[in-house]
Write a structure and sequence with these properties.
Layout (H helix, E strand, L loop, with lengths): L1 E2 L20 H8 L2 E7 L2 E7 L7
Antiparallel strand pairs: 1-3, 2-3
Length: about 55
């Protein structure tokens, strides 16, 4: 997934998930096996990996 926005880093002294801040990255990291966020001049790319159970 790619967009033209940029991630805003919260201040170092601010705990995550406070009012006015999103929880999206925390949720991605909690739910996925791997997360990667790259920001650059062309926008932001997010790579998420989740291994699925083999029920066979």
């Amino acid at each position: 997934m790619r967009d033209t926005g940029a991630w805003i880093q919260p201040p170092a002294d601010q705990p995550p998930g406070l009012p006015g801040r999103g929880r999206g990255r925390l949720m991605m990291e909690a739910l996925m096996d791997e997360t990667e966020v790259r920001s650059g001049p062309g926008g932001t790319t997010v790579r998420l990996v989740k291994e699925l159970a083999d029920d066979a």
